[in-house]
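Throughout this review, each integer encodes one residue's backbone shape. One record appears below.

===
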Amino acid sequence: MNNDIRQLVQLWIEKAKEDWGTVEILRESEYCPKGVICFHCQQYAEKLLKALLTASGIEFPKTHDLRRLIQLCEKCPGLS
């Protein structure tokens, strides 16, 4: 994996960690808006899937569809 790809993968992972951090903060609050927590969980999963696809050299459309991203991940080497 070249350095540009490695940096892009790291960026996806860092952004995913931000979403997970938000989930943890919201879970600890007295007011726990479940819809917002679910949104950030979805974003966390989406960004990790995109990191995996990027690392595997698999192009993906601009989408928030986890099912579509998972289908693309099935093509990742070593995951099938």
